[in-house]
Amino acid sequence: HQEVMGDPVQLKDEGNKHFQAGDIDKAIECYSSAIKVCPDKKMLAVIYRNRSACYLKKVSHLHSIDVDAADIKALYRRCQALEKLGKLDMAFKDVQRCATLEPKNRTFLETLRRLGAEIQAKLKTTFSTDSRVQNMFDILLDEEMGKENKEKAANNLIVLAREDAGAERIFQNNGVPLLLNLIATGKPEMILAAVRTLSGMCTGHKAMAILHMVGVDKLCSVMAIDDEEIALAACNLFQCINDSLTGGDKREYGKEEALVLDASKDLKTILLSLLEMVASKKVSGHGRDQALNLLSKNVPRKIRKEKDNSRTLFTIDHGLKKILKVCGQVPELPDQLPLTENTQLIASVLLNKLYDDLTCDPERANFKDICEEYIKSKIDPKDMDKTIHAVNTISGLLQGPFDVGNALVGHQGIMEMMVALCGSERDVDQMVAVEALIHSSSKMSRASFFITNGVSLLKDIYKKTKNERIKIRALVGLCKLGSAGGDDYSLRQFAEGSTEKLAKQCRKWLCNPQIDTKTRKWAIEGLAYLTNDADVKDDFVEDELALKAMFELAKRADTYDKKEIIPELVQLAKFSKQHVPEQHPKDKKDFIEQRVKRLLKAGVTSALAVMVKADNSILTEQTKEMLARVFLALSENPRDRGTIVAEGGGKALIPLALEGTEAGKVKASHALAKIASISNPEIAFPGERVYEVIRPLVSLLHTDRDGKQNYEALRGLTNLAGFSEKLRVKIVKESALPDIESYMFEQHDQLRQAATECMCNLVTCKEVQERFLQDGNDRLKLLVLLCGEDDEGLQTAAAGALAMLTAVQKKLCTKLTTVTLQWLEILQRLCLHHNPQIQHRGIVIVYNMLNSDDSELAKKLIESEMLEILSVIGKAEDSPKRQEALDAARTCLVKAMDLGLIKPFTNTS
């Protein structure tokens, strides 16, 4: 028998014998023992099946129970058998009947409760995750399934992956290999769903697992696909993995953090693979853009204080030449790398960020040497295509780390080469050369060289060429050189005709859809220089088609989670210049207002909002400041603010107010304050964003800001504080109270009123009430005195605050009488006020004092003229305008009767 105890085969056979003989309980015993010791999965399944058959047999044995409900024991046994079979709802019904028949039986009640809970839990999990996960994969991998079902399933997976429990379930259900199968289908929508699901799952230790299960090469090959959405989604996934590995992922994951072992090896592999992608022919333009974006975002140090810039040095050693290669591509030539219209600009931005991240001269010298060596290796007088590659690379450097590009232009031979290319017969040579000339004339020192040599070159090209694309670029060069001369008119006039004529030509090109986007963007560039002239500004805003065309170009390609950059548009900010050296008559206020109107009508806000959504790593601090200035100019007129909110301007201002130059942050905060003061916060700043608005507004309260900014910030905070308790708490948390209080003491009427209104909306906060209860300060005294001021707006706010405070804090009713001798006189004036709102608030304060449990105080009030005032008001005829005040006075009189201080009115004849 000892043998049988441990041998699953024999135990199973033993069970079978008992089953045959009809001894079901014994059979169950044997099978249960066998299950405990059986190592073989297939056999285990058989034993489980046999044991289930036993339970089923027991259940059917017990079906006669229905006839004799009193056989409770048998009923309970059936309940247990059903539970073992996993038929919880049937088991629940049985035990429910047992409990009905014997309501005091503890066992039945306990089982009933336990099964109820289990059913709930099971419903929740089967419904929520396991089966849903499996179900979704089945739908997605089923060839026959309809498109709509697949889309639904894909979205469900993505949503599930973003919740911890869901991600864990997908993981345990063999999810990663299944997601790889989806990618393998090669269908864009499947790939997208899989990649977005993986992004959601990438938290804590899962990121490492996903990285190893999918592999960096696979991820790169997905990002390399020629599909903008997929490239972007893959870029996101890389970012999630990177954030988890570097600890940039700040969500809480409990203990699993410890499992993320040293990630530096993986990070290095990813970095090398991204650099590989930068110059690979197999990678699409969109994939290249995203690889460059990832490098921009993750290689340079985020915080200057960190000493370690080894990632940048590593990238320069292993990838600088690859990035330079991208800058040098000339799409018009055969056999180039696939690019989008943004790729080369993104590459220039990356070069700039890498160069900025260097910490000492030797590092910078090394960067310059690599660039120089690369350019030299490409210059070949016998091979024009190689040479224009070199010139284009210099263009890229001039748009990135200007100093490096500038140093290279100065090298012997390069200038002459550009000049030679300008004279070439081939359009593409001229185009590359003109662009390089334009980029290198950004600094006056170089411009003087060009003004002598370049102008005649460019004029020449402008007149001779039949190619519109070159014509436009030559014109931009002329515009740029013209404006390089600043306000010196002699220089301005050299281009053919006047600035207005040139601008008209640029506007014509801008509106022509037959011309490619890149060239039309150059037309905007030309206008950017020409609009320094107020006449040009004015003509431009009259031209609604041109404005719309410009904004459309600025918004191009704004798709899912897109990080777009449109540097050309930044020049638009010129229209809000605060100071123009010699003021043109058309830069006066009313002209500017007209221009703002036209810009808003043409949709400027959504174009700006798209730019702000751009990846912050690409927007420079100056650009952000420019954007903030434009927003501030647009939001000047309260009537325009609705338009700005409707096109997403409120949201867009938040990031501008939180980071950038000091001036930029202040301007953006000021524009935010203007919008917050008159908008419904839920619409202007949807979702959680509204909480982020508070800090910028509070920053405008500081004394070093000007009065207008203080005032608008107080107005904005008042509006937010009137909206919800959560917002009030947040305002208090941002330590706004001391500032708001100090403005209540301010001499300036408007500021004092705005601060008091703000306080009136904040007094429902416990912390605010506590400040009024503290001893040794004048807060309460100030409120009482403000109620006695002549300004009605101020009185309304102060009396409102006092009415609310005395209602919630009875102690303040007594304290109110000690802060100033004039308290009673001020109260009486409020109660007799001609403004019904102020009168009502005054009477409410009196009621609160009668209701304060301080019998002495109540007596004092009723013995003063207050009784007469209340009686007169209480007896008055009903009137809709003053009804609130009348009702309040009557309530006071009833209260005084309750307190036994006055007798009911008796009609004396």
Task: Name its key features.
developmental protein, differentiation, 54 helices, cytoplasm, Serine Threonine Protein Phosphatase 5, Tetratricopeptide repeat, TPR_rpt, ARM-type_fold
Concise structural overview:
This protein is mainly α. Helix content is 72%, strand content 0%.
Which spans have pLDDT < 50 for at least 5 consecutive residues?
A: 251-261, 486-496, 557-585
CATH class of the domain at 591-764: Mainly Alpha
Kindly report how far apart the N and C termini lie: 115 Å
Strand tally is 0
Compute the CA-based radius of gyration: 39 Å
Net shape: flat
Q: Report the sheet with the most strands, covering strand number, pairing sense and barrel closure.
A: none
Category by helix and strand content: mainly alpha
Mean pLDDT: 83
Number of helices: 54
Please state roughly what percent of the residues sit in beta strands, choosing from under 5%, 5-15%, 15-25%, 25-35%, 35-45% or over 45%.
Answer: under 5%
- By CATH, the topology of the domain at 591-764 is Leucine-rich Repeat Variant
Organism: Takifugu rubripes
Protein name: Unc-45 myosin chaperone B
TPR repeats: 8-41
GO molecular function: Hsp90 protein binding
